[in-house]
Amino acid sequence: MSPDAILTALDPEQREVALALNGPVVVLAGAGTGKTRAITHRIAYGVRIGAYQPTSVLAVTFTARAAGEMRTRLRDLGVQGVQARTFHSAALRQLGYFWPRVVGGAPPRLQEYKAPIIAEAARRVGLSVDRVAVRDLSSEVEWAKVSLITADDYEKASYAAGREAPSGYDAQAVARLITAYEDVKTEREVIDFEDVLLMLADMLNSHKIVADEVRSQYRRFVVDEYQDVSPLQQFLLDQWLGGRKELCVVGDPSQTIYSFTGASPRHLLQFRRTYPEAQEIRLVRDYRSTPQVVNLANQVLKRAGRAGGAHQALELVAQREPGPPVTFMAYDDDEAEAKGIATRAARLIGSGVKPSEIAVLYRTNAQSEAFEAAFADAGVGYLVRGGQRFFQRKEVRDAMLLLRGAARSADPELPMQDQVRDILSAAGWADQPPTARGAARERWDAMQALVSLADDLAGAATPESPATVAGLVAELDERAAAQHAPTVEGVTLASLHAAKGLEWDAVFLAGMSEGLMPISLAERDDAVHEERRLLYVGITRARVHLELSFGRSRNPGGRATRKRTRFLDGLWPDEPRAPRARTTQKGQARALLTGEHDAALFDALRDWRLEVARETDKPAYTVLTDATLAAIAEIRPSGTAELARVNGIGPAKIDRYGAAILSIVASAPAS
């Protein structure tokens, strides 16, 4: 793409990001506002005009999937050579490169899972542990390390952070465990993921020749999801930068949901204090969700109060056409809720929504069991996010072996997608899925994902770059390295935390009751505020259809003692409350709205707004927002006094646009 074409594909605020080629830059980007689009186009534009060398850019994010998505978008923009990686992937690559020169020999083996070493460390310090305790202690050791807290400082630091030692142990016992954990690693000559960041940061800090080489290679840095950066990751980033300011960070404080792992929005919120000269750009146009979904998300955050960060929240402005209203459901019990959601998901599928575009999100992993049973009973395919990784499945590994072998003798004259179907038929794939659920259907779903990927690649092929089996194998190898799995056709079951960064056409938020949302373990105010942000993240995963529900009791026949979450106070319908009109500064009552407006009138008003925006060379939303147009289309004002009651219409807007608006309303037939 040409530089002009790169910019033309962006809205005004995204274009501002792309043009901010020199740092420091902080982009505050709300959910669904196209932040990945903005930063990848920024990189591509910088490369196209010669401001950046592609190999001098290091873009880091928090998940392999996000890094893979960034690389794919840059490739589609014709940019090769940019490093887009997770913090750990980038650090591991550099550590492996410099270790032989600085330390000598091969680097220590990476221990992917802490559990075996934690269990041995617990035995050495006399702690009795079971599987759950080992998991909890592993998480606590990880928190201490990413927070740059040593064993000597753990007791004081954990108290200051308000953390209770896990599984009933005291802080002193955990501190002893941390020391023993490090000893066991040293004896076994292994390192963990946190050590990778620590060792590289120390190497850069202590060896000038290493730091100079890395800094001469990477001159520009982009950090996505900056609200989730930990003290350890920030320390490594500081070493990469070496005092330079060519840094662009992107984040949203309202999506900070991993503080229990050591993530902190402090670095994002204080970026302008760290870099007073930094350019700040806000992305608030939500292209993902309908106005109904966006309105609920905004309202949930507004009710947080200043202590909960409401003053820092970005108010999203919906850009999509209006959709169906958000649905709220109360069930007798959890089993009824699971069955009801499975039934409603099946109806959506019957109406044309793909199963892979539907998700059921819940607060704890333990809630998945009821939904797995309900979807199996309903005959609806599903996959549990957070289960076995796609590329680790035996049938996927076997299929890739077959494809790799066939690539060497593939007939270039035959359509690639047809060859793939023939190859995978030998591994058990068929045109139609098996009627049985369970393992057989899961195997078929996995191979069908490979078939669908082959179809996608074939559809994107050109005469100059035809689709081949070898090309499919290369794509799969790249995706396997990044853990960027192809889409498996089935309803997604996932925890709210696991859903971060994803989106679906239809989302069911289950278990919206006190004790689950917020979780009963959230006792401190800051923990409750984070639970509210978690709900916000869940809401903003939905594009069109959104349903929130809870069960009044846990088990069938149980007492209906549960209450729906406090976070939906004033938002859950049919609550016994008196409606309250908003007032202007002059005391005039604002219009009471139901959210049901005249769609034809709304479209006419949007067409008028577009003409005004073109004539005045202004963004359309600066004329009137979608929310204001929807309110006008609902109350259908017949005069200036009624028009003035609409939120977003003041004296200046009435003077400028009042006559035109009232004329459009008067000429629109009543619905």
Automatic annotation (TrEMBL):
<comment type="similarity">
    <text>Belongs to the helicase family. UvrD subfamily.</text>
</comment>
<feature type="domain" description="UvrD-like helicase C-terminal">
    <location>
        <begin position="291"/>
        <end position="544"/>
    </location>
</feature>
<dbReference type="InterPro" id="IPR044876">
    <property type="entry name" value="HRDC_dom_sf"/>
</dbReference>
<keyword id="KW-0547">Nucleotide-binding</keyword>
<dbReference type="GO" id="GO:0016787">
    <property type="term" value="F:hydrolase activity"/>
</dbReference>
<feature type="domain" description="HRDC">
    <location>
        <begin position="595"/>
        <end position="671"/>
    </location>
</feature>
<dbReference type="InterPro" id="IPR010997">
    <property type="entry name" value="HRDC-like_sf"/>
</dbReference>
<dbReference type="GO" id="GO:0005524">
    <property type="term" value="F:ATP binding"/>
</dbReference>
<dbReference type="InterPro" id="IPR013986">
    <property type="entry name" value="DExx_box_DNA_helicase_dom_sf"/>
</dbReference>
<dbReference type="InterPro" id="IPR027417">
    <property type="entry name" value="P-loop_NTPase"/>
</dbReference>
<dbReference type="GO" id="GO:0005829">
    <property type="term" value="C:cytosol"/>
</dbReference>
<dbReference type="InterPro" id="IPR002121">
    <property type="entry name" value="HRDC_dom"/>
</dbReference>
<keyword id="KW-0413">Isomerase</keyword>
<protein>
    <recommendedName>
        <fullName>DNA 3'-5' helicase</fullName>
        <ecNumber>5.6.2.4</ecNumber>
    </recommendedName>
</protein>
<feature type="binding site">
    <location>
        <begin position="29"/>
        <end position="36"/>
    </location>
    <ligand>
        <name>ATP</name>
    </ligand>
</feature>
<dbReference type="InterPro" id="IPR014017">
    <property type="entry name" value="DNA_helicase_UvrD-like_C"/>
</dbReference>
<dbReference type="Pfam" id="PF00580">
    <property type="entry name" value="UvrD-helicase"/>
</dbReference>
<feature type="domain" description="UvrD-like helicase ATP-binding">
    <location>
        <begin position="8"/>
        <end position="290"/>
    </location>
</feature>
<dbReference type="Pfam" id="PF13361">
    <property type="entry name" value="UvrD_C"/>
</dbReference>
<dbReference type="Pfam" id="PF00570">
    <property type="entry name" value="HRDC"/>
</dbReference>
<dbReference type="GO" id="GO:0043138">
    <property type="term" value="F:3'-5' DNA helicase activity"/>
</dbReference>
<dbReference type="GO" id="GO:0033202">
    <property type="term" value="C:DNA helicase complex"/>
</dbReference>
<dbReference type="GO" id="GO:0003677">
    <property type="term" value="F:DNA binding"/>
</dbReference>
<dbReference type="GO" id="GO:0000725">
    <property type="term" value="P:recombinational repair"/>
</dbReference>
<dbReference type="InterPro" id="IPR000212">
    <property type="entry name" value="DNA_helicase_UvrD/REP"/>
</dbReference>
<keyword id="KW-0378">Hydrolase</keyword>
<keyword id="KW-0067">ATP-binding</keyword>
<dbReference type="InterPro" id="IPR014016">
    <property type="entry name" value="UvrD-like_ATP-bd"/>
</dbReference>
<keyword id="KW-0347">Helicase</keyword>
